[in-house]
Every structure is written in structure tokens, then in C-alpha cells.
Amino acid sequence: MKSSQTAASPSAKIKRVGVVGGGQLAWMMGDAASKLGIELVVQTPHATDPATAVSIDPVLAAIDDVNATAKLADRCDVVTFENEFVNLDGLRLLEQEGVLFQPSLSSLYPLLDKYIQRCYLRDFGLPTPRFWEWDCSADLPFDFPFVIKVRRHGYDGQGTFIVKNRESFESICARLKGRPLLLEEFVPFDRELAVIAARSASGEIAIYPIVETQQENQVCRLVIAPADISLELKAEAEAIARTLLNSLQAVGVFGIELFLTADNKLLVNEIAPRTHNSGHFTIDACKTSQFEQHLRAVCQLPLGNCDLNCNAALMVNLLGYESAESDYLEKRKQLAQIKGAFVHWYGKKESRPGRKLGHVTVVLDGESARNGRSQAESIAQTVESIWRAS
Ligand code: ADP
Question: For the whole model, what pTM was predicted?
Fold first, then answer.
């Protein structure tokens, strides 16, 4: 694909989308692509990766293999991303040759390195935890607890360390020595929230209901939609999303993670330039899923309606709890019996502790939706007791 072919005009009909990355986020674009009459081609290292199942003739190569992305681009009208572990310098050469990336590489640049991302937020006057560029040799600017993060390639809490005392500090430092790190204050948040928002190339923005997220060991466990927050906070979270998406000239779905402090202040924790785990509930609980929305944005189609199609919903991740080869079919059948439940299984062949293997969304209507967080917590416990039963 070169610019002369695509012209990137709003009238250009995009038929085939290349996706760099072939995990569950790309896999979940599959249904949306069929609905929109779009073909997907993924670039992913292994033939067994989830999204090969929804791709025509996948490009089997590492995510940061630029030659492979050039091949992908040759076969597609536009290239998008399911994760941010890309080789930006290499991709720039392709962009100069006319490959259309959506979101563009300049939108991605401030987000790929956690320190640069924090600087971007600070320079925009957006609230963020206090932070320092750091390596293990420098003096600590404050006392325990604090948070150490690897600047690049961290995900699902891998690379994020909440350091509570000197003993854990020393063992983490021994592990991370030599890697570029971000040090930041520990935020004793009251709750964590997330905003899933999309922006089109024409500047249209669509925002999903703000959600509450709960993490365990820095990995998302539960998402509750909508978050039980005041209208003022909702407006503030939406305004942060608008400011960010406009300033980045974003195209596609972006996930924005927020801390809500006890004195009702919002701080931006992280921006992900892609569809997001906090938005999985949208598949079953919203008029347009985040995956359809992302494809709409990158294919220059009008954005869809973000409204809930139920009163409320919750999403529980099915995280691996053992090293095993199993499709957990019996457990999935039991989970599907829960009222309002939709079970999504990513088709991964191997389970490992903490690995995201699937998720369950439960849609809530009527009385059950009125009990909010306590109801969500009780259903999450039911899901987890089935999932983890021996
Ligand atoms: P990742 O990119 O791996 O998802 P995050 O930076 O989003 O890592 O952190 C994962 C989780 O760790 C957050 O959702 C939050 O629960 C916790 N966390 C991260 N940074 C802080 C912080 N500064 N203070 C308190 N908790 C934090």
C-alpha cells in the first residue's frame, strides 16, 4: 500500500486492514471486521496466536520486524496496531514511503515510553502522579512506598513494581539494573477508572461510559460499567479524554487509565494507543463494540453509538492460575450458565499464571443493575470460584 493507491481521502473505500499484533485484541476485531465487510491481515510471531484465526494469510513475524510490516502494508489499505511494542524508527521509513498508519506514528510517539508519556501529560497541564527519570544508581527522591516502572515493553503489570520497603527495593533493583526506568509516587487511590474513547480522522470523538477498574497484582481483574461517579467527575474524565485525543491527533480507539483520589481528584495513570482491556464489556453491553469503533475510525467510516444496551455490565478477566495445556471447556460451560453472561475464550493453547485466557461479561438489567458495586463484586466472585475451582 502506497499513498498514491490509498489517497486517504474520506471517500476512499478501505477494504483491508493490516494489524500489527495478533493477540486477543486483534482477534476480537474479527467479528467487527466481518460485520463491516472488511478483511484483516495480522502480523504476529506464531501461527497459534489468537488472531491468526481471523486473518487472511497472516504475516508470521515479530511485532517489531519492519520488513514484515512492509509486506503487511503492501497487502493492505491501512495499517493499525493492537499493541505498542513497535519499532517506531523503522516504521517511520515506511510512513515516508507512503504507508498509511492509523493511528499515525506521530500520535504513537509520545506514548510508547512511560517517561516520555508522563512528560507529555505534564507539559499539557494534565494531572499525573509525580515522576522522575531514574536508574537504580541515583538517590531516591522520596521514602517508601513508591512505584518503579520499566519505561518500555511493560504490560499487565509486568514491569510495574510497587516498592514497599528496602528489602524489596534491593531485589527489584538487582533485577532491573541497567534498564531505563520511571520512578513515581505511590498514589493511594480510592478507585481506578478508565475512559475508552475513539477519534476519527475528521476529528469526531465518541466516548464510552466511564468504567471502574479493579486490578490485582497490577493486572486488571474486574471492570464495572458505568462507574458510580458524579456528573462532574464524569465530565472531567471526558474532558481529559477529549484533550488528549485532540492533542495527539489520534485516530482509532484509545484507553485512558485514571486514578481517583480520596479528595475526588483525577490523575492520568496511562494512555494506551489501542483498544483496551477496560473496554471489552462494549462487545456485549454497548451498541458499538470498541473493536468495531476502532475499525470504523481507521477505515474512515462514521463512528458508532457508544451507549450501553443494558443498564450496567461487568467484565471479569479469566486469568491463568496454573501452567497447563487445557481449553477449560467444562468451566466455560458453567460460566455460560450465569444469568446475562457472555464468555469469550481467546483460544490460547497454553495457560500460565496471570496470562489472559478469556473474559466473561455479565450484562445487568432491572433490580440487579441497581445494586452497583456490591452486585458486581458478588458476580465476580461467582465467576472466579467457577474459574479457579480444582
Ligand atoms: P501496565 O502498563 O503494566 O498496565 P500500569 O502503569 O498501568 O502498568 O500499572 C498497573 C497497575 O499498578 C495500575 O492499574 C495500578 O493498580 C498500579 N499502579 C501503577 N502505578 C501506580 C502508582 N503510581 N500508585 C499506585 N498504584 C499504581
Answer: 0.95
